[in-house]
Amino acid sequence: MNPTVDRLIARVRTRLAKTPLPRFFAWWGRELLACLPPRWREFLADRSETLLIGREGEALVVWRERGGQISEHGRIDGSQPAEVQTAQFRQLRGAIDDANLRSVYCIDRSRVLARVLSLPAAATDNLTQVLGFEMDRQTPFKADQVYFDSRVIGEDTAGRTAQVELVLMPRAQLDAELAALPAGIAPFDGVDAWSAAPGIARRRVNLLAADKRTQRRDLRLPLNLGLAAAALLLLVLNMDESLANRAATLDAMRVEVDDAAKQAKQVAALRKSLTDSIVGANFLADRKRKGPTVVGLIDDITRRLPLDAYLERLQIENKQVQIQGQATEAAKLIALLGASPCLGNPGFQGQVQPDPRTGKERFQVNAELKECELQPNAGSAVPGKPDQGSKDVAAKAAAAAQVAAKDEKGKMQPEPAKPAPAPAQSAPTPAKPLPAPRNAPNAQGKTAAPPPRERAARKEP
Question: Is residue 200 pLDDT above 80, yes or no?
Answer without folding.
Answer: yes
